[in-house]
Fold Cell surface protein.
Amino acid sequence: MANQIKTFGMSRMTIGSCSDFHTKVNDCITATTPAALHITEKATAYSAASELLASIVNRERAFVATATLAEADDVRDRASGVIGQVVNAYLTSPVAEKKAAATLLDAKMSPYRGIRKHEYTKQTAETRGMLAMLDAEAEAVAALGLTEEVEAVREANAAFDTEFLKKTEEMSSRMTQSDVKSEDAVNEANALYQDIVQTVNAYAIVQPSDEINTFIASVNGLVGTYSSIAGSASKGGSASGGDTPALEPEE
């Protein structure tokens, strides 16, 4: 009787177990060679589907740039706060020059009060406007000794902008992954695997070889192991592929 790849209840596997199973089957295909198994084209598609499935087992949720964004935002918030506090303090200064500078800046900064509580990107744009205004009133800024604080805001805002662009690059690199539905990726890998099983089982009957028999033995070892993990039972194989339930994805 011809050797056959057994089937098992794949629907009971978690998405992680499913991915690991397909990865190991791909390793067996590589070791035997697709040509020896008569699945050259199928193996290419199956390998790609397995890699895609592996990429979504643990999707990246956090962004590397998030922490540095928060740090840059904290710096510009604190520097802006110092500017506002100093301007407010000098409104009652007995030194005429400083009081005049504070009165001027207090009026000029009125549109920017509360921007520290605004959404990140809105605050970035508003801070640019505030910096342009402060640059135009550089004499008053210098009179109150705030030149360094203004530069600190400028540097922090620029740093925030840079880190924000890095975050958008991270987001862009994840778009393909995030657009993939787990169920679709699982079903695609399973379907391609079953197609390969059907082909290999058929050749095991009509054109058996040592390579095919060795491959079948290796895959059946995996089937036995993963069926135990899934709490399923392996069944005798057939050229038609046998038990092919869709896997229930687990996020």
Notes: Residues 238-251 have pLDDT under 50 and may be disordered. The radius of gyration is 32 Å. Residues 147-179 form the longest helix (33 residues). The CA atoms of residues 76 and 140 lie 20 Å apart.
